[in-house]
Structure formats: structure tokens, C-alpha cells
């Protein structure tokens, strides 16, 4: 079978399925503003535009750096175009996407298609920088009238999701905010207010903003508006920034950073734009390549003028620094640090960090945030639903000015949030050993509950503390171990009594992966046999080694020595005596050892005809750099309660595509383990194949623009895997996509009414919306299946792309809601179905197995380590 079929997959149309009816009817508000009139202009002309500084330093910049730092350049180009428009585009309404595309309401009167209009312009507010601008005509004319056809729901093509008419409208609605002096546009759809920024530890600041995008709905267009936050670099001198990165460790910058610190610094600084001070009056902008060690900096020379001699960097700049500090009344301590700058010139350029000022408005990548910074941002961004709703309205009215038609295209937008018919689905029962309980608002308690099934008896285990004795005293650690073992037993785990020597406890100092191997080998010596599990006590999130240590433990234990591991942060020390904390930990341990914590009623997981189902979850995570590898994970249920799962993972070349290239191999392996488990469970012969008659896939991580490609590739691969496993095996398949990366929020009409809202003011758990704001053609819905302890709850977005089983809308919505109650390490319903959640967890875990080549192997791709054979008997090892 070919990798892709040429025939497009059939489109499941909503009109063939209708809307759901089950549940209690309510009305909610959504953060969508309805567009009554799209535009008085029926078409826009498209032009290609290039905007480059005559002092262009971007030619040699790596593509991944350009991509990560592109927002700042886009905003510069917007300022340049605004200056041009005042002279060249009078009486013409235009929209600009910040890149290479310009849309206008009038033809710019090009005679020929290949004509180009070169313009040179000086922008005073950008330090009188000269820019070369070239505008050339495209043969495309964007017609807005086709949007009216789309929203009727009668016609649909897969390229609907990437229709350029949406790009035109989105560029127009962002224009007012993007051109304002008080706001900065970042990404395609978000505008941030720098005047309301909040300082965060480590040299970054949090800017509040608003996301906005035009979305199709049932018979109408809507503008989706949602408050958002993003981290930006503080506009400070580089020496101040580095000092903030390492506070409170350093009161003053050291003479040299260690290797770990240098690696962390250069990850943060690479590609960062700085303004070179001391070169008055120009102060040019340059990008940082890396921070230099003193040894590296000693190799650089400085030549102030063409006819002057080269002098050592330190000697030349020391006097300049002292004079600069004195002239600017800045009592500062000089350092020996220099940064190497990116340059088009053949010679390498280095500059003292004291003379580098970070330029405002550069976004700080989320992947560079420390645990502490992430915690601060999450806390600041958690707004109660009522506040989030009022900020949404403020963003629409005051920032985007949607109701005022500020661009002048004749767009008419209703001023209030859209009201939508919704329903509240019932929660499922949760079954423990001998007891059944009904969740309240998606939550329940483990008190007096025993697990459905204990995993392997835990007799031989070991405890290692990578935290120092003064932070984790031995007596406290031993008390914790005793409390944990006692609680595990109370929850129904089969665990041996804690004795003086079992489990053994020891301190180790972390010195890379060899320290983890030593921990395992020490455990083997003390136990006179391999341990079943090692519990690691590791430094808290504020520690610079927290993430590296955790990932090293998982990588070595999972792929090298083949032993179960459980990590506990010293941050949790205050909870070590808490029965609830120990009970939560026991859930993870029992799962890893092969147990089952809770079950759902089996009838809720079977299809109406009684067929057993194999539930699949799949996810892909992509690297940020071009040399990295994408990680794919597929999980499959083994039992009829969808409580036990097996996971398979692969890596593949980073291509920007979302398809899982080896999904057929992974599903074939899942089917093999499914049959083995079912044969053993039902006590039937090995040659009797027990196969599910239906497969339901909950696919994560697929954007709407990739729906067609993923469906067209993966659906045939799933069916091919079934046929390869057993010729003629043709199960019925549902292929659905679950999305969390969206900005849809729903709010109760009466937040004080307990029949509409929970105590935090969010909609009730189980609220489902499949009308008005959903897709005009496809069968999709929003389901809020979880309780949000803080902030505004985000519903998940489900789209059914293929259905051989022919479930009704109500049946699929109910099934999806039920699966959200079966995430085995939680005592609450979760926001996405458990197979999708497990796939995400497995993907994150497998990413830790990627080994980057050393310098001697430069150019070689990263290597993905295989799971140890010893862990194959523990399918839920990754929990």
C-alpha cells in the first residue's frame, strides 16, 4: 500500500449527524463576537513585499534563530510600511501580515505582472535607518465573498482552513493594535501591552495581551478574542540581565561561569538583538552568537580605525568603560565578559557585555523558562472567569476597537459575547475495590478507598537522595518512607513492611548519568539482587539541575539499567506527612508495578452493539532546532475498562508535518500486546486470536490546516497495520482529533447559579457546546470535562474526521466525556480523554531518550535510545 492514498477522505458533514441532545440544557457565553457585515469590499489585491535595512545583518543568521526572533523584525517592518503608506498609499486601505504579503483594496496600478516598485525610505523613530522596500504584483485576487458560502455549511474543501481570505481579515483586525506605540504584536494573532508589564525573576517580564482571530461558525463569521500573556526580555544592559539570571547565587558576576552555566546562558542569548552602546550616535543593532569565556575573548583583537593597530579587547575597552560609567553617572563594576556577535563580515566581532543593551519587545521562548519562572507566569496568568470575561470585552472594544470599524472596511461586529446553547453531560461512576462512587464536579477522594488491583508485590526497593543532608535530613526521609509504605498498603498495594534495611536509604552527589548508574549499582549490592523500583529525592524546581537530573534519571533507568523509578521533589517535603500526598504517590507506584487503581463501568466503554473497543491515543512533539528529531508516541488500551495501556514511540525527521510516519508499525505492535493480554486474561489458547471489532483513535497535536494530510496518511496506515497483523482483519475505525491549543472559552450566564457554574465561576464539568460557534460543515464540539482549581477553564475541541462505526453525536460525546474520568494517576476528571493524555505523557518521556551527538560526531542526527527489555513487563512504566 502506498504511503498516501490519492483519493481524498470522505468528509463527515454535520448535517448528516445533527446536534447532540443528551444532558441538561443550558445557555452559555463564548468569547466570540459575531460579525454581521464582513466588508464593503468584496476583493483585495495581493502584492509581494520585501523590506530590508540597508545595514542588513540578517543574511548569515541561522533560520531557526530568525524564526524564533522574527516578531521583532515584523514589528519593525510594520513601522516602515506605515511610514510608506502615509506617502504612497493615500486613500488605499491595506493589510500587512508582517512578512512578505501586502493586501490592498485598490490596485496599485502595476502595468505588468512582474513589475516591481523599489522604494528607499528613512525612518526617524528607528534611528534614521534606511530601508529598501520592493513591492511587486501578484496575480492573486482574494475574494471575501467565498467566506459567505463556507459559513452556510453546504460547500467544503480541505483548503478551507488555509483560505487566504482569513489571512486578510486577521491582518486587518490586528492593524490598529499592531501600529500603536503602546502595543507590540507577537506571533500571527496576539497583541501585547508593554505598559502593563510585570517583572519576573531572571531578567524577563510578563506582558499581558489579547489574542484575536476570525473563525467560521454556524451561518456566521466570528472574531475569537481571549486575554493572553507572554514573556519578554527586559530591556536592560547585558551584564544586569546575566546577574538577574543567577540571583541569588551571585551578588556580582563571577570572573568565569562553569560549563553548565555557560550552556544555559548561551541557550538564552543566542540570536538576541542588542544595541551596541558607546558607539555614539549610531548605536547599531546586532545579534548575539554566544557569550565568550575569558580564554576565547583573549583571541579577539580590536581595530578602531582602518589605519590603526590591533589591540587586545580588554585593554582597549577598559578605559572606555570607565569613561562611559563616569559620563553617564553609573557606579558599576566592570567584568571581563564579551559576547561574539553575528556578522556578515569575514572577521569575527566581540563586544563587552556592559556595552550591549537588550532591545525591547523580544519574546522569550517558553522552552527557556525555568520552573520558577513558569510558576510565576502561571500564577499571574490565572484569572477568575469573571475577570477573564471582562478583559475579553475590554480587548475587543478598547484595543482592537472591533465595534468601531477603525480600518474603514465596513465591518460590523456585535458588541457582546455570543450566547450559545449548551448541555451538561452526566459524570460516570468510579469503581474501586468493593466501592462505587459518584464524582462531584469532576472530583473524588481516595480516603477509605482501595485500588481495584495491586501491581506486583513491592519487596525490593531503594531510596536515593540527590539533595544534601541539610535540606533533606535522614530522619525526615526515613519517616517519609514509612508514611509512604503505610499509605500504599492502606490503598491496597501489595507492599512489604518497612524494616531497618528495606528499603535502604543513601545520599549521592549528582555528577551526570554515571551518578544514576551508581545509584542503581549500589542498590543491587545492598539488596543482593536488582531492585524493582528506586525512589529518588531530587532538588526543588529552583535548583538549576532539577530538570537535567530528572531527565537523566528517567533516561538511564528506562533505557540503560531497566528499572522502575519514582522521583520526589524536595519542594514537596512539607507534604511528606500528608496521607493525601502519599496516596497520590501510591497511585503512580501501583500503575508502574502493573496495577489498576480504578475502573469505569464496563457498559460505559462498550459500543451500543456490545463490541469491545481498542482505544488509541497519539501525539507528536517537535524540536525547536532544525537538527532535532520529532518524537511520536502511540498508546493502546489492553483491557475492557481502558485502564491499562501500552505505549510505543519512534523518532522521525523534523519536517513541519504532523503525520506519524511509522504509525502502522506501532499499531501492529500494540495489537500483538493487546492479544497477549486478552488471551492471558480470558485464559484462552495462544493460537486463538482475540481482536477488537472497533478501534477509536483520539489524535492529539494536529492543527486544522493539517487535518487532511494526517487523516489521508494515518487512517490507511491504521487499516494496513490491522491487515498485516491478521489478513482480512478489518475493524471499524473512528479517527478523531482532540485539541487544546485554541483560545475558545465558555462562561456561565449566571456565575452565582449552582446549576450553571462551579464555585470558581467556571461552567460546570461536563458542559458541551456543538452549536453556533462550531464548524459550519465538520462534526466538531467543545467539551469542558475537568474542574479548574484556579483560573478560567479551557474546554477541549473534538473533531470527528472519520467514522466507520456510525456512533451518534450523543454516543461519541458521552464516550469521550467518560474517558476523561479514567486517567489512572488522578482523582479528578481530566481535560482530554485518557488515551490522548497518556500519549502526551509518553511523548514527553520519550523525548528524554534523545541523545545529542558530541562535538566529535558533529553533523550526526540525535539518537533515540530504546526502552530496556526489562521494562517491557511494566506497560505503564512512564506514569
Automatic annotation (TrEMBL):
Domain of life: Eukaryota
InterPro entries referenced in this protein's UniProt entry, alphabetically: ArgoL1 (IPR014811), Argonaute_Mid_dom (IPR032473), Argonaute_N (IPR032474), PAZ_dom_sf (IPR036085), Piwi (IPR003165), Piwi_ago-like (IPR045246), RNaseH-like_sf (IPR012337), RNaseH_sf (IPR036397)
Domain Piwi: 533-851
GO terms for MF: nucleic acid binding
PANTHER family reported in the protein's UniProt record: EUKARYOTIC TRANSLATION INITIATION FACTOR 2C
Protein name per Swiss-Prot or TrEMBL: Piwi domain-containing protein
